[in-house]
Amino acid sequence: MSVAASDNAPLPERLILFDGVCVLCNGSMQFILKHERAAEFHFAAVQSDAGRRALAAHGQPTEDWDSVVVVDGAAVYLKSDAAIRIARGLRAPWSWLRALAILPRGLRDWLYDRVARNRYRLFGRYDQCRIPTAEERGRFLQ
Question: Which tens digits make up the pLDDT trace of 53-71?
Answer without folding.
Answer: 888 888 888 887 778 899 9
